[in-house]
Amino acid sequence: MSSQGIQTEKMGRSQALAFACSLCKCEGYDLGISSPTVIVPDTRISVGEYLSIHHAPCSFDQIEKYWSDYAIEPECLFDFLRSQSEAFDSGVGNGHWAGANGNVPVSDETSSELAVRVGKQLLRAHPDAAAKTMGVIFYSATLSSRPAWSTSCRLHFELGLKCDTAFMISQKGANASYAALRVAAEMLHIEQLDKILLIGSEIFAPPQSRIFSGFSVQGDSASALLLERREYAFKLCCIGLYDFAKQPPGTANSTHDELLDYWTEATVSALMHLLEASGVRREKLAFVIPPGCSPELLYRIADELRIPREKFDCSASREVGSLGSSDLVLNLDRMIKSGVLSLGDEIISFGFSSHGSVCGCVLRYEERRGVR
Fold first, then answer.
1. In a domain, 215, yes or no
2. Cα distance between residue 311 and residue 313, in whole Å
3. pLDDT for position 18
4. Which residue, 2, 50, 6, is CA-closest to 211?
5. Element at 351 (helix H, strand E)
6. Taking a C-beta distance cutoff of 8 angstroms, is the pair 85, 55 a contact?
7. Domain that holds residue 74
8. pTM tops 0.90, yes or no
9. Do both 225 and 291 map to the same domain?
10. pLDDT tens digits for 16-55?
């Protein structure tokens, strides 16, 4: 990790944000993403309904159903989760929510059940992948940032994988998918492996809040993809994880404009650095695929980057809303199915999480052999 500050182009900023960056220039690795697969629950609640719900204090029954897989005393976990519901009802975290339109997917399954289900769906479509997969990485943002060791082991067993490697990546909020992708790329390159299965799932179990900085209300989901050598749909060119020294403003004591200013500046700083590192020029980008969030924020990011707004592909989020760490996989899946891509198209994707990180990757649509 190297700490660095960058001065963006003159776009009305007085000072660039300093960040620590973990960057992987993987153009020469010959790795790519294939088989993006997403499960979104059929059950929906409206955003307005969710915001009006009284979030009762956490019960021991909820701990037993959702939160049992932790190396922490149940009494301490109970106190922590109860404080989350009290904070929600007092207005902390939702005071600046800008709009109450749309629906949020919700599931009564556990996170690990959703993860197993999406893994089985991917492997049914690619039955030879189970025997050839050299590792499985589970990623998630909704487990209070604590590693849940059983889910990756359950995936290894129930999916019938023959590999020796199974572990989880968290601590990156909704950017957990990018962190998992970064680790998997280095594993494949350094150890000369051919295929790693990445699976993620999000269940916002009570009383965990679905609201991100007033810009999105996130739904439950599961997603999976294969990171492969030589066979892929999207070639991985560059991936960067950016953690900013300046923490985001607290939603309870900040104006909406202050939140917009922070996330616009952080995102633009990260994406400009990522584009420079990848050698891709902004005017050559075919698409920008953002996370599901407020159009107001995305318009500001587009304008600051001087990238036409129409290049921001928001079709997936308009369909199902924000899905946290599943947003990247959802967007790639929808872009393949929609037929909007042409061979050679260069794409940049990004996401952000509430503790002040922006992550992104540069991809090229190539469709190497073996990809349908």
1. yes
2. 6
3. 87
4. 50
5. strand 346-353
6. yes
7. 32-229
8. no
9. no
10. 678 889 999 998 899 999 999 999 999 998 887 887 775 6
